[in-house]
Amino acid sequence: MHPGIKVFAPASVANIAVGYDILGFALDKPGDEILAKFKDRKGLVIKTITGGKGLPLEVEKNTAGFAAQRFLEHIGEADRGIEFEIRKKMPFGSGLGSSAASAVAGVMAVNELLDCPLEKRDLLPFAVQGEQIADGSYHADNVAPSLIGGMVLIRDNPSLDVHRLNVPKGLYATVVYPKIKILTRDSRAILSDQVLLKDHIKQSGNLAAFMLGLFNSDFALIGRALQDVIIEPQRRKLIPYFDEVQEAALKCGALGCSISGAGPSIFALSANSLIAEEAGNAMKKVFTDRKIRTKLFLSGINQEGAIKC
Ligand code: HSE
């Protein structure tokens, strides 16, 4: 009797200030786990979900289930008897890529249980389809880093032209999650579909400079580049005290600070873990002084992505 397997898929920070829908990096933790085992009866079922109050057990409505089922169909195993136990370790609607981590864990779990019929990277399209049922749009900026790890550029979402970027030694992330719920769907709906030419020029310069700063491990350039003039000005109003939190992080010496994915989490990048920790404490204090409960995560850039554990 096969004992089953367990997989872990990490949280991620999407957009990284200058790359809306096209940049993301993976964190060491938190992350979601799935335990998968074979069962006699045909078909995929989700037996339990812990830590994810209100999330659907129905395979076709669950990001992990949907992604896994599309993958099973692709490899001609649509009826395979498999049972999932999903352990959610991060809240939905937090800006930490929660639905992406579940979708990634779903495809990883099936792939590992079936002795890896596909390379990890080839699982990407199924995981992106899984996340799509949560927010209605097809973008891989959370799914890709959660799956393959590292800091990732998606040159083109429809064709999933995905590339790992150089991560300078020492680069460290801070993420503060204030316990407010913002659904990605809603946070996307408020965005204008028009961009002023002057903002496009500024943002393109920052995006290109951020890439170059990563490539050359040039922290000063990374610091000048991490400014979002397009998305952050529209979304900052959804997060109370955003300006104070950002200012607190920058005062501690963080290279940049902006909204993590669709929010409400706020991330900072720093040149070392000490600055990241000081920035995190200062960012957290802004919320706790106002009686808003928060969670603080400190992490290097997770280079592994999803793993069997
Ligand atoms: N790029 C996405 C957004 C990430 O900002 O809406 C969240 O899914």
Fill in the keyword field for this structure.
globular; 309 residues; Alpha-Beta Plaits; seven-stranded mixed β-sheet; binds L-homoserine; Ribosomal Protein S5, domain 2; alpha+beta; 2 domains
Could you describe the 3D structure shown?
The protein folds into two domains: 161 residues, 2-Layer Sandwich (Ribosomal Protein S5, domain 2); 129 residues, Alpha-Beta Plaits (2-Layer Sandwich). Helix 1 runs antiparallel to helix 3, helix 6 runs antiparallel to helix 7 and helix 9 packs antiparallel against helix 10. The chain starts with a strand and ends with a strand. A hairpin with a 4-residue loop joins strand 5 and strand 6. The strands form two sheets. Strands 1, 2, 3, 4, 5, 6 and 11 form a seven-stranded mixed beta sheet that branches. A four-stranded antiparallel beta sheet has the order 8-9-7-10. The radius of gyration is 19 Å and the shape is globular. The chain is built from ten helices and eleven strands. By secondary structure, the chain is an alpha+beta fold. It binds L-homoserine. The site of L-homoserine has 13 residues, from helix 5.
Q: What structural class do helix, strand and pairing data support?
A: alpha+beta
Number of E strands: 11
Task: Give the number of helices.
Answer: 10
- CATH architectural label of the largest domain: 2-Layer Sandwich
Biggest beta-sheet profile = 7 strands, mixed
Strand content: 15-25%
Could you tell me how far the N terminus lies from the C terminus, measured between alpha carbons in angstroms?
19 Å
Mean pLDDT: 97
Rg on CA atoms, Å:
19 Å
Q: Give the distinct bound molecules.
A: L-homoserine
Helicity, in percent? 25-40%
List segments where confidence is low: pLDDT < 50 over at least 5 consecutive residues: none
- Any idea of the CATH topology of the largest domain? Ribosomal Protein S5, domain 2
What is the overall silhouette? globular
Write the element-wise H/E pattern from the N-terminal end onward: EEEHEHHHEEEHHHHHEEHEE
CATH class of the largest domain: Alpha Beta
Number of domains: 2
